[in-house]
Amino acid sequence: MDLGLSTRTALVCGASKGLGLGCAQSLAREGVAVTLVARGAEALEAAAAAIRAATGGTVTAVAADITTPAGRAAALAACPMPDILVTNAGGPKPGDFRDWDRDAWIAALDANMLTPIELIRATVDAMIERRFGRIVNITSGAVKAPIDILGLSNGARSGLTGFVAGLARKTVAHNVTINNLLPGPFETDRLRETARQWSKQTGKSEETVLAERRAANPSGRFGTPAEFGDACAYLCSAQAGFITGQNLLMDGGHYPGTF
Question: Cystine design at 152: which of 80, 108, 109, 254 (Cβ 3.0–4.6 Å)?
Fold first, then answer.
């Protein structure tokens, strides 16, 4: 299927590795000119070079912290009017809510709720004027099924989900959609960090924790960033203009509910 994206531009956050990189790779394969943003300059440049080599496409790398005003300004200076916005920031560290003070909560809200909202605010009106826009927020399966040690993420990302639910119904008439992708267990650094936390709590080895998580998933495995990226590319496609305000859970069937 031709996704109709060959003339489009995208700003992809947290794109040096993991799920953000998977999204950038999939969009670039569709002919999208992508601007990658991440904090680590070395990993970011390596990711950009790999995408250029694989696709021959236009790839711009911006080393910046997207959770800060200066970082957002740098990203938007490089890609001021993206047709596609993929918001993504590393989740807060797992732990016990008794250990989190106000500063920890504000940092979580800044990274995982307010930063996406600020990026949407900076780009959505131009999308509306051009009558094309696709915004995809990478959130978490914890929005659907909260995980006790990820309370900071549960709260901040759920706040973003509520905000998006209202705005997405206003922009869709202008062919601007806003959706959330909710990853479950994917082969990423974030998953390994969570496994280390469980390992400390249970006394099991990290590899044992990971093996048990694989076995507990109906698919018998973890997802791959490439699978996630392709789902993102479809939500950004010309064909997906009738999908908005949705939370697409990608978890291998782990969540047992009907809704």
Answer: 108
Q: Could you read off the pLDDT of 109-167 as tens digits, one per residue?
A: 999 999 999 999 999 999 999 999 999 999 999 999 888 888 999 999 999 999 999 99
Residues 6+ apart with CB under 8 A from 207: none
For the whole model, what pTM was predicted?
0.94
Runs of H (alpha helix) within 79-188 = 102-109, 115-130, 151-171
Q: What percent of the chain has pLDDT over 70?
A: 100
Structural tokens at position 93: 């560290």
Q: Are 154 and 182 in contact (CB under 8 A)?
A: no
- Which whole-number Å values give the CA distances from 179 to 111, 139, 235, in the listed order? 18, 10, 8
What letters, b where the CB count within 10 A reaches 16 and e where it falls short, cover 187-203? bbebbeebbebbbeeee
